[in-house]
Amino acid sequence: MKPVLIQAAIAVVLMQCAVAQAADNAAQIKRGEYLARAGDCTACHTATNGPLFGGGFAVSTPFGQIWGSNISSDKQYGIGSWSDDQFVAAVRDGIGKNGEQLYPAMPYDSFTKMKRDDVLAIKAYLMSMPPVHQASPQTDLPFPFNQRWGMRFWKWFNFDKGELQNDTQQSAQWNNGRYLVEALAHCGTCHTPRNLTMGMDNDKALAGGDLGGWMAYNITPDKQAGIGDWSHQQLVTYLKTGFVANKASASGPMAEAIEHSLQYLPESDLQDIATYLRSVKPQPDAQQTRARDSWGQPSTALIALRGADDATRHAQPGAVVFAGNCASCHGAEGAGSGSGFHAYPSLFHHTSTGAADALNVVSVVLNGVHRHMREGEVFMPPFAPELSDQQVADVSNFVTQQFGNPAAAKVDAKQVKGLREDAKLASPPIYGQGDKP
């Protein structure tokens, strides 16, 4: 063969290899985008209204605030200069670029189960995104929690390192659902209770977790405490939309997970998650004597306020607050209004009002609900700027007593104040005599 022909042949081969390599890179980036979405990386690594993956989001823990790091492609402040091994070590092992121990606010106790190729696909996607040239605030916990070397001891008790292996006795759908729940979507980070060292209590996996201002409910198939009375399709619909009539409407951290992550997953993934959740060990709770969504009925309490004298109204402070702030959307009887995507949910047959703890009801009143969904926005205004701590306690107790679980523990103004302060929500102004609100 003539030298010219040989050179031409080599050029064609090299071009084909380059095209194949570009296609492989594009496929890896596309998968990385999906994986980053499924893992909800934006939740901790994007500040509110901040640039994507630029860090700066504050994660509240019992030990202080931990700031989400910049994971953009920036070489100075992000991961632009990280090797593949360094990135994998951070995600799966909780080891930073310079060998420092990472706090488990980064859920590497779940991410350790991820496939290495999946972690590298996420890195490829992040590296394809614009760099964010800004430093994230430095985490500065009080002593002794600022001694990162101490995380080695935490890991001895709470960190089972290793990639999740498929169970050959189960279907591909079940294994995918398990991978999503236990590893990628790290559901146990919120929905599993914590032990004394704040590690996940895996003997009670998915039995519900206390997030401070919110409860992440039991998502095992126990019929009273968990999702045992939910159908498969109801679970899928909730994961996709955050709402199932006469069951639940998502708020707080769960609303954020649906907004940023779950609503974008393919239907097959949501089906697989539901399949796996319905198969795990049921975890009962003695406090939850019947399914949360089975409590409640319409209330006629507001009828008694019509034409009532001041003494009667004073004796029903929660009803008064409800009439002035809640009834216009949720109805005087608490049955909600409207249908479809923009419906206002019923307050009875609802997992929050039927819980044994009114924590989520209080937090919804204080924080409101705001889910950016593909179909539009779901919005309930926050009442923290409008209602005093006592008013929030009054209306929360009224809602749980009238529409939900009458055995639920009552809340008081002191508890509301604590939740308000933890969430850094301003109190309404106190007006003096002659002032106009």
Automatic annotation (TrEMBL):
User: Which Pfam families does its entry note?
Assistant: Cytochrom_C (PF00034)
Q: Where is this protein primarily located?
A: membrane
* Region called Disordered, residue ranges: 418-437
Q: Which residues form the signal peptide?
A: 1-22
- Keyword Repeat, does the record have it? yes
Query: Is this entry keyworded DNA repair?
Result: no
Q: Which residues form the Cytochrome c domain?
A: 27-130, 172-281, 313-403
- What is the annotated localization of this protein? Cell membrane
Q: Superkingdom of the source?
A: Bacteria
Q: Which UniProt keywords apply?
A: Cell membrane, Electron transport, Heme, Iron, Membrane, Metal-binding, Repeat, Signal, Transport
PANTHER family, per this entry?
ALCOHOL DEHYDROGENASE CYTOCHROME C SUBUNIT, BLL4482 PROTEIN-RELATED
Which protein is depicted? Answer: Gluconate 2-dehydrogenase
Give the originating organism.
Pantoea endophytica
Lineage runs:
Bacteria, Pseudomonadati, Pseudomonadota, Gammaproteobacteria, Enterobacterales
